[in-house]
């Protein structure tokens, strides 16, 4: 049976169920499998014509032993998870007319129209499955810079075994994203708008880490998370890389390139691990915006925290790409002592300079660049004008990065990940297209409906967030479970 360990070396190996329900490892590290499964070209050939859900079953079965979840149970969880998606293929691919062998992977046909639905549809249903079987309850807490929160709230809403506390930096996400959380009427969903966050979502991650470190509180309210700290998110996201590859190649084994709009490195961590498992990807393009946290890591070998910039691609306005530590573990011969040393150094000084050998190891097969706001807007307008296709600002960052790095990419097929529907970013779209009215492609019925609904939200200043969450979550737990403080 596959076991999971902390990437910083503490605690003992745990089974799949424990890794999923705990979120963080017991020492505060990130769970990783003791070994990555290997996928052969013959397996890829066998999978070539599978639909998304059937492919997901094959890949996840490599990580999940049937004694933990039976084949019938896993198939049902997957089928139920992706039933609400708008497209039967779950993730369509659009071939650009204006780019040779260039495809847009449209990851935004879930209920909250972002790629976070792809991972969270499965993960939240998986957590609920485990809790129902154990007759237990969990309090989920997530920080969001725009898309994780709505997806977590949607898939948690109404589930009797779960409550969701979704924290977002007030004013740093769009009104459309905010309303996806605040208009849900369900009593087990708690949106929290946090003002005065100088480091954006990273301030919220710090508070969540402190709550996890508060062991009596964590154990009382059964704290867990479905942020991309959770192995289940990264594991599930490996699937869409295999799926995209199988959809575009003519011959199994041919290499392609993939471009990913990147902030916290959760999505790209999954891509990097998929390649280590056997996916034939030549280059991954790390498409950063002006915050450039990953571009510094991959071009200079420097993991550092810099002042944050607000950009049109707000979901990747990230300063600390914590999933990089998870990927790095597999690039240093799974040496957890090195990961702990570097992560402790970063916590103490805010900077790590990696040695040349380590930098060469983790950067192999990656190209990175930083895309300006102007380049982002220009790419949206250029693509819309040339082929009447509307990109969201994150997909635009991915495509602009490809344009910037085209001389290094050669003639291989290219898949660019579009991670949200453009309707979530109306002001960005209007600015990019230089119009006053959003075109129909920039609208979505779910967001139009949300404009008419009552909002329910707690508003808190960042300086008081930790104390207020302790009070609110303790009170909510006592109310639900009829206990005293």
Task: Describe the SSE topology.
Elements: E1 4-6, H1 16-22, E2 31-33, H2 41-47, H3 52-60, H4 71-82, E3 93-95, E4 102-106, H5 116-134, E5 138-143, H6 148-156, E6 162-169, H7 175-182, E7 189-195, H8 201-213, H9 215-221, E8 223-224, H10 231-248, E9 256-261, H11 266-277, E10 281-288, H12 293-300, E11 302-304, H13 323-329, H14 336-349, E12 351-353, H15 356-363, E13 366-370, H16 373-387, H17 393-404, H18 406-409, E14 414-418, H19 426-433, H20 445-450, E15 458-461, H21 465-481
Parallel strand pairs: 4-14, 5-6, 5-8, 6-7, 7-15, 9-10, 9-14, 10-13
Antiparallel strand pairs: 1-2, 3-4, 11-12
Helix pairs in contact: 3-4, 3-10, 4-5, 5-6, 5-10, 6-7, 10-11, 11-13, 16-17, 16-19
Describe the structure in your own words.
The protein has helices at 16-22, 41-47, 52-60, 71-82, 116-134, 148-156, 175-182, 201-213, 215-221, 231-248, 266-277, 293-300, 323-329, 336-349, 356-363, 373-387, 393-404, 406-409, 426-433, 445-450, 465-481, and strands spanning 4-6, 31-33, 93-95, 102-106, 138-143, 162-169, 189-195, 223-224, 256-261, 281-288, 302-304, 351-353, 366-370, 414-418, 458-461. With 485 residues, it is of the alpha/beta class. It has a domain at 93-113 and 249-445: Rossmann fold, CATH 3.40.50.1100. A six-stranded mixed beta sheet has the order 3-4-14-9-10-13. Strands 8-5-6-7-15 form a five-stranded parallel beta sheet, sandwiched between helices. A two-stranded antiparallel ribbon has the order 1-2. The longest helix has 19 residues, at 116-134.
